[in-house]
Amino acid sequence: MQKEDPRKHAKFHGITSQERVTSDVYMHIMQKGASDREKVTPFKRAQLRHRRQGENPNRMDDLGDWIDFSQGPTEDNRIISLDLPDEVADKHIYKGPIFGLRGFPGLLFAPNALGEDVQNELAFQAVTKYCESPHKTNIDQCAPKANEEVDESMKMWEDWKAETNWQESSTKKKQKALHSGRRKYRSLKKLSWATMGYHYDWTERSYNKDLKSSMPSLVENISVLFARTSLVMDNEATGATNAVSYTASASIVNFYSTKSNMGGHRDDLEFAMDKPIVSMSVGLPAVFLLGGKTNEEEPVVSILVRSGDVLCMGGDSRLNYHGMARVLPFSVQLPERDSACCPLDADRIGLLDVSSNASDVSREDEQALDCFLSNHRININVRQVYHDSEDGAASSTDAS
Q1: Per-domain residue ranges of the chain
Q2: Among 10, 40, 112, 258, which has the highest number of CB atoms less than 10 A from its own CB?
């Protein structure tokens, strides 16, 4: 008996043609068993809808679905322009344009908020310091394999520059890779994430106060600024009078290639759920997914996140499901940002606003970093783990 082509179906298990779910999603679902098909949640459908296609990595057929905060509410009525209360205009908060999302109270988005110098500094610190001891990475979770070389004296960034020889053509790189010998145990090619501040115990699914590294001041200062903005806006929206204080006590730095994605999840293991998660992006753009309190809830929206954008999940959105469907390649042509929806240069966060000193970056490192960022996305997300009384928020970040 000839197998039925699932592409013939216009409707299956609640998925309609009006949802513009592409044929590869139908194929994925129909090829599963009946019990598995029933488990396909709205969030999973969104992941399948927007995932990377190996045969078409530059796909833009889902562009019409994306929420692009850089285009503002005039182009998308799901976007809400947020205004800071007059009485807090002089406080230590972000002064540039900020937006919310209809149906997702507590979400705050600041497009292109980080200046070029801040983006470059964050990226350089991420590949040279944030992924090295005393911070922890995914590589540290597994012992070296027999065919892997361990060289603690070589930093991953220096090794990446030497191993990839980023100035050479891709053909020469492939030829060298065939004769490169043993693989390196610590390598940027293996790096997925690094943790700073309180380290998350992935086995126990909890934080341990005894497992901690220092939080870089640059990351702390940026996240406190936007967290305070989020807390002020949440008080304004709800009429609450919660303390506008924040401790950047834990951070996860995610390193993505163009083939990467992040499955749907909730950040629900912190104790200070009244404090927002602050997420900053550098490098390649990505399609971010945001759902409800469970993966069964609709709608699940797709958001275009670009380099320099800052997103806060606070208030009612703090525990929403979220993930990343795909990273967009450098070659993809995106719509230009609308200057009316992005901060003036004077309002963007510059390095002098958040750091007392900058890295001494050589010309070689600048060029190598440009090469790395043309093939990768770096996301730095920050959260307060414990309540103010336990995390010491008032010591340095409480408002006055």
Answers
A1: 6-40, 63-129+191-395
A2: 112
Calculate the CA 243 to chain-centre distance.
26
pLDDT in tens, 140-155: 999 999 999 998 888 9
User: SS3 helix, strand, coil % of the chain, rounded to 5?
Assistant: 30, 20, 50
pLDDT bucket at 13, cuts 50 / 70 / 90: very low
Over the stretch 27-71, which tens digit does the pLDDT of each residue have?
A: 555 455 555 555 899 999 999 999 999 999 999 999 999 999 999
For 213, residues 6+ apart whose C-beta sits below 8 A from its C-beta are 134, 135, 136, 195, 196, 197, 199
Tens digits of per-residue pLDDT, 329-348?
A: 999 999 999 999 999 888 89
Q: Which CATH number fits domain 63-129+191-395: 3.40.50.360, 3.90.640.10, 2.60.120.590, 1.10.10.10?
A: 2.60.120.590
- Measured CA to CA, the distance from residue 224 to residue 244 in angstroms comes to 10
- The tokens of 346 are what? 């004077």
CA-to-CA dists, residue 163 to 173, 201, 206, angstroms: 9, 31, 36
pLDDT of residue 199: 93
Helix axis angle, 116-125 relative to 217-238, nearest 10°?
120
Angle at 158 between CA 216 and CA 332, to 5 degrees: 80
CA–CA separation, 301 vs 290, rounded Å?
A: 5
Q: Which of 157, 153, 163 is nearest to 183 (CA)?
A: 163
Distance CA 365, CA 167 (A): 12
